[in-house]
TrEMBL record, chain A:
Gene Ontology terms, MF aspect: antiporter activity
A GO BP entry: monoatomic ion transport
Ranges that cross the membrane: 77-97, 109-125, 131-150, 162-185, 205-230, 242-264, 270-291, 298-316, 322-346, 367-389, 409-429, 450-473, 505-526, 565-584, 596-618, 625-645, 651-669, 690-711, 750-768, 789-814, 820-840, 852-875, 895-919
Membrane topology type: Multi-pass membrane protein
One GO cellular component term: plasma membrane
Subcellular location(s) per record: Cell membrane; Membrane
Main location group: membrane
Protein name as it appears in the record: Multisubunit potassium/proton antiporter, PhaA subunit /multisubunit potassium/proton antiporter, PhaB subunit
Domain NADH:quinone oxidoreductase/Mrp antiporter transmembrane residue range list: 126-404
TrEMBL record, chain B:
Membrane topology annotation: Multi-pass membrane protein
Organism: Loktanella salsilacus
Name recorded for this polypeptide: Multisubunit potassium/proton antiporter, PhaC subunit
Alphabetized PANTHER family for the sequence: ANTIPORTER SUBUNIT MNHC2-RELATED (PTHR34583)
InterPro entries: CPA3_antiporter_subunitC, NUOK/Mnh_C1-like
Compartments, as annotated in UniProt: Cell membrane
Keyword terms of this UniProt record: Cell membrane, Membrane, Transmembrane, Transmembrane helix
GO cellular component, one term: plasma membrane
Keyword Cell membrane carried by entry: yes
Main location: membrane
One Pfam short name: Oxidored_q2
Annotated family: Belongs to the CPA3 antiporters (TC 2.A.63) subunit C family.
Domain of life: Bacteria
Amino acid sequence: MSLFIIVALPFLGALLPGLFIRAGRQACFVATFTVSALAFIGLMTHLPAVLGGQVATARLDWLPDLGLNLNLFLDPLGFMFAALILGIGLLIIIYARWYLSRDDNMGEFFSYLLLFQGAMVGIVLSDNILMLLVFWELTSLSSFLLIGFWKHLPAGRQGARMALTVTGMGGLAMIGGMLILGQIVGSYDLTVILENRELIQASPLYLPALLLILTGCFTKSAQFPFHFWLPHAMSAPTPVSAYLHSATMVKAGLFLMARMWPVLSGTDVWVTLVCSVGLITMVLGAFIAFFKNDLKALLAFSTVSHLGLICFLLGTGTTFGAMAAVFHILNHASFKAALFMVAGIVDHGVHTRDMRKLGGLRHVMPLTFVLATLAGLSMAGIPLLNGFISKEMMLEEAVHTTLFGSPLLVAVVATIGALFSAAYSFRFISHTFLGAERDDYPAHPHDPKAGLWFSPALLMIPVIALGVAPFMAEPFVRLVTEAVVGGVAELPEEHLALWHGFKPALFMSMIAVVGGLIWLALFSPLSRMWESAPRPEAKDIFDTLIKALANGAGRFSRTLHDGSFTRYAAIFTLAVVAVGTHAWSTGTAGGATRDMLRVTPIAAMLWGMLIAATCFLVFYHRNRLAVLILMGIIGLIVSVSFNYFSAPDLALTQISVEVVTIILLLLALNFLPNRSPKESTPIRRTRDAVIALIGGAAVAGLVWTILMSGFPLASISEYHLANSYKGGGGDNVVNVILVDFRGYDTFGEIIVLGIAALVIYALTEALLNGPVRAKLLNRDFEEARAGDAHPLMMVVLTRVMMPVVLMVGVYIFLRGHNEPGGGFVAGLVVAIAVVMQYMASGFAWAEKRQRYPYHGIIGAGVLCAGLTGIGSWFAGEPFLTSAFGYFRIPPMQEFELATAMGFDLGVFLSVVGAVMLLLESFFRLGRRAGTEDSEYAIDIDPSRTSTAEEG
Amino acid sequence: MELLIASAIGVLTAAGIYMVLRQRTFSVIIGTSLLSYAVNVFLFASGRLTVNAPPVLRDGVDVYADPLPQALVLTAIVISFGMTAVVVIMALGSYLSAGDDLVDVPDPHADIPQAPQTLRGEAVE
């Protein structure tokens, strides 16, 4: 089966449980199990190839320019982890089926579980470190969902948040490290990176990359000082704990250390850092675990300890250490998953996990007792069980490891760790199952149904088989170790065996087991000392830290982002001017190379009017009606200037936009206060004036410089001028640019315009359907209403003008391709003609006579433009290539037909629809404001009055 | 002439900035409209000033104004109208629902909860 399918199956399958839960819990379980089983079988089809030394790959370019590709590969290391993830995943799914109660949403649970499974499989099969990072973050996210699955428990939510924070932060560090690594090597492909050991270790960036990657690994694998999140994640449902903390999530960090072993390990920093962190974690975790009364808490700290052990083994940098690490990963996954499930069974049966309330369960839960004992003794490192073999190898490795110049230090620390480890394992068994049967259990304990004990029982097979005959696993472990080592060093001579002779490790083991028993015997006094001793509570520290950070961040952003829009605008203006000034002073601008145009008297007069109007506007800006009149003057002068400076199209557009803008603002003023109150202090006004003058002066200077210098680079306008007629079939170059050269641009713009109109429509609807509606209906008008809202003169005038204006619109539209005009201007002109009817005769009257919804006109316009563009495909040309021809139909003159006209028609319709829709929206607001609908076009109509009297 | 255009754009910009810095939505909208005049003329002027040479092809004429900035500004004028309309309806909506037409949030500290967790009834330890 393709590696893509193996990775994709859990992700795609994650959709199923949520659907199948509708058909019942059993159907949901079967669907989940089938998905996982398919992926597992798919993986197993690769087993012969993997054993034969082949590496399966699957490659797919995603973003090759960024080095981000969907490359997967399956080497023995990836295979081992994928098998653990999928295999133990199957057991967990079975277990969870019978563990979850009817109140738990099983569909949701299994969806999260499959998401997590997919992300984990993705990590171990990735051949691209960027892909790996994506999957890495996905595990953080999906584990957050799993840990916080019991959303009603505060501890669950807090634990999930803590796990996400710690592993997420580690993930960020990891991204940094991986990017550095990719920069050093010049490739993000894992297989390429793994071949460049010398290059990476010689690079000055090796140390930062190593530290960042290790931070990611340590947080994920709960190594000291990031170990504290793992015990808090125990508030998750037990199947989650069993899955995340035996075979998957926490092993991801170890996996990555093993994966990167060939290129990162072996240096002094690596050995010192990874070994000591691993040893500290191992001893600390084991020490704390012993005193935990909660079964799952004990197992949590024991997991921390075992992760430390594996971390230490990888840290030694020897091949024997790597082999021991690989073997212990396998063993730990088997016995720890079983132990978690046993803890869940006890919880299920007795309704408590507190060992102070347990004991003597051997009498009532014999089967559970057997399973717990086997797994527990394996964890303690008792011979004939698999935990013993790998622990012996760890001790053996410890003997040969020198840290901080002391050959003995590691051996002693490792023995102490093993001793504590044995002690808490014994305590787990004895305080739960041994001793006399009690009569105060919170519930009546009993052995569980097969669904719950099946999975841990199955795990006992490897626990015993590998314990008795470790050589069975040797070929596979060697193969995986070879993949870890990656040809950097020779594989060790040693074999996996039960009996190694009288070596130091054997004596250390004996010390650990005997010491563990003694330590357990001293439990009561030790526990009292532990309870009374002051110790830092990781959660408090974490919470305080997070709170301080959150408060700091809140203060920071509230200071910067205080809701004062005017302050942002002021800062923005000054910042832009500052950047511009910097660019000006550091760059080189050529001197004046162009001659000035002569100033004509009319131009000077217009200039004077513009300046005067603008100054008046600023000084009298509180009178809003006056502002609108002044705006009209400014707009007119701008459009006249466009005309003067050879831009007739712009002049036409500006003047028609001016009309609709003023109408729009007048409509808005209908609702807003007519005057702005005087509220700024003189200081504030002065400050604003200074800022405004600085900004204005900067812009004026910039424009002056641009206008006086020639083009620094050749303009593409020459091309447009040369090809307008030849390629676009039009004389009006501006119009040809709009509908042809840059037609795609225009297409986007009419869509934007349509969206703006629809936004306004939607906002109006929201306003009219919300509480604002009552306000609109009941509002008082500041000024008296007109007695004659629809005056006779205006109605008659607009009615007469309507066909004339429409004709002008059609004329402007048709001539657009060769003379100034076109769809934009024509659309605006036609819209004005229609708006005039609304203004003269009122909304209700006009609305009744309006047959086509404006939304539809916008849509028709966009469609028309789009279809014209698509039409060129049928001629085998790219989108929006125009064609044109000249036709002669007697008795008319010869005329031109161009496909661009279809496009321009689209522009025209969109503009008409958009302008009308948005103005209509404002009208609608006004209509609701209490004006009465008029039935007639004119309020006071002499002819109607007489007919009414007669009738 | 260039001086007139440069100074006119400068004055329009200064007026626009001043109006944007006012505290009422209507003034800010007027300010942005003034700024869009300034920006449109600025963009147009980047094609340099030409008199009596509209970019409409004629036989025997080979000097034309730069058509490209004109095409860009033409759509910009229409789009900025659309944007003005959106801002106006937003200003109207906020005035009608909030009862005032101030642009600044009156007291930014008043309605931001100190610790978001407490909102969900979960004690922060």
